[in-house]
């Protein structure tokens, strides 16, 4: 019985030692995916913000009072 418990404990320690580096790799991959999502968000957010501002009905919007304005 004692031998079985020792085997169980050593197996548990071995599995834990394999799990920690694997979780580190998974964490690194998730961080890179989130970094790509953040870059895409910044790329798409800038034109969206500009379109929102110029899409509003302002009276004193720069360029709106000129003949070549929009």
What would you note in describing this structure?
It contains 1 helix and no strands. The chain has 70 residues and is mostly helical. It has one domain (1-54). The mean pLDDT is 85.
How would a textbook summarize the main sheet?
none
> What is the averaged pLDDT score?
85
Total domain count: 1
Percent range for β-strand residues: under 5%
Q: Note poorly predicted spans.
A: none
CA-CA gap between termini: 86 Å
How many helices? The count is: 1
Give the ordered list of helices and strands: H
Number of strands: 0
Radius of gyration: 29 Å
Given helix and strand content, the structural type is mainly alpha
Helix content: over 70%
Q: Please state the overall shape, judged from the principal axes of the Cα atoms.
A: rod-shaped
Helix-strand layout with pairing:
Blueprint: H1 2-55
Key descriptive features of the protein:
70 residues; mainly alpha; 1 helix; 77% helix
Short description:
By secondary structure, the protein is mainly alpha-helical. Helices cover 77% and strands 0% of the residues. It has one helix and no strands.
């Amino acid at each position: 019985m004692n031998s079985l418990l020792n085997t169980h404990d050593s197996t548990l320690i071995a599995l834990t030692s394999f799990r920690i580096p694997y979780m580190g790799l998974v964490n690194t991959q998730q961080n890179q995916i989130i970094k790509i999502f953040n870059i895409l968000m910044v790329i798409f957010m800038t034109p969206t913000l500009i379109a929102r501002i110029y899409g509003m009905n302002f009276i004193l919007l720069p360029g709106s009072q000129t003949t070549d304005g929009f």
